[in-house]
Structures are given as structure tokens and as C-alpha cells.
Amino acid sequence: MRGWRRKCLIDISSDAGVYMSRLSYSLVVILTLFVGLGGFNKAKASSLCLGDEVIQFSFKVTDAEKFVSLCEGRNQGYLVYRLGVPGDIEEQYPEQLNSESWRGFSFSGYSRGGGVANDAMGDYSLSFNRRGVSYTVFQGWRLVEGRYEIGVVIGSGGTRRLLSGAKEEQVGSLVRLDGKAMLKNRW
User: Fold this and answer.
1) Residues 6+ away with beta carbon under 8 Å from 53
2) Domains in the chain, number
3) Is residue 6 domain-resident?
């Protein structure tokens, strides 16, 4: 009886170890998304949003002292993209901050849950064109691969430039824009 019980406990514990490993990894991903969705409040200093604006998505650009921020005006009054540093905005789209601003953006979002067994993943992007230059702000993750990426792709005349984002400097998430009726949906 003792041999059976010992074998049973070993089998159970090894299965539990695999289960706990998957569970731990899933919890890390969920916590990352929770923080990205605003589960913890970070200072507005890590964004280019103004005091009365809502930070929808913001991150520090890797290898630069710049930020990319998507900010929403009070009562969903407008959506604005900004690139630069606090106090020195290099780029802003659109110029006019009003309810028409939402129409200048195109949103795309897809996610699949189910943990490791279903290769949980998500891909979200917000695109716009400004003076012949295309901008695509993106956020994507793959649970099985352990990959998480944020950034902006800027394209003009056949050339593309990637501004990768530092995930540890991220506030908010593109997921926050999913379902906003004012945005054009690419799906």
C-alpha cells in the first residue's frame, strides 16, 4: 500500500508541478495585462497626456528619451496621438482636438484566451495617416512564445521605421479602445 501511495503522490506532484508552472505563467501574463489596463495608477509624468485627459495607452520608446501617448479628452471628447517628451511635443495628431478626431483613426483588435493549451494571444493596433506618413501603434502578445511587444511603425515612401516600446514603462492598453463606437474598426 505504501508503494502505491508514494507512486501516486509522486505522479500527482509531478502533474501538479506542470500545472503550477502553467498557472504561474498564466498569472504573470494576466498581471501584465492588468497593469497595462490601468490596474495600478502611474504618474502622468510617464505620458504626454494633459491633466484632464485619460491615458488610454502610453509608453517610453526604447533607446530614446521619448514617449508615445494616446490620450482621450474628457467625456470622450477626442482622441489624440502624441510623440515627444513632457513639455516638448514633437508630433501630435490630429491638430484640432474635437469629436471629429476619432474618425481619423482606424482600430483593429483580436484576442484569444484559453491559456497555454489554446495558445492565448492578442493583437491590437491603432492606425492613422498624417501628411502622407502612416502610423500604426501596436500591442501584441503570445502566451506560448512568452512574447509581448508594443511600439509604433512609421512608414513613408516605401520605408518603415520601428519605435519599440519599453513594456516596463507602459501605462494603459490598446485594449481600452476596443468597442469604442467612435473609432473606425478594420475588422
Assistant:
1) 71, 72, 73, 74, 80
2) 1
3) no
117 inside domain:
yes
Backbone angles phi, psi at 186, to 5 degrees: -85, -5
pLDDT band at 115, cuts 50/70/90?
Answer: confident
Identify the pLDDT of residue 52.
94
Give every CB contact of residue 52 below 8 A, 6+ residues apart in sequence: 73, 74
95 vs 78, 80, 114, CA distance in Å? 11, 9, 41
Which of 22-26, 66-70, 145-149, 150-154 has the lowest average pLDDT? 22-26
**Residue 52: domain span:** 32-185
| Residues of the chain by 3-state class (helix, strand, coil), percent to 5 | 30, 45, 30
User: How many other C-beta atoms can be found within 10 angstroms of the C-beta atom of residue 98?
Assistant: 10
Neighbours of 150 (CB within 10 A): 26
Q: Is pLDDT above 50 for 13?
A: no
The C-alpha cell of 157 is what? 515612401
Q: Within a domain: residue 57?
A: yes
Over residues 128-174, the pLDDT tens digits come to 999 999 999 999 999 989 999 999 999 999 999 999 999 999 999 99
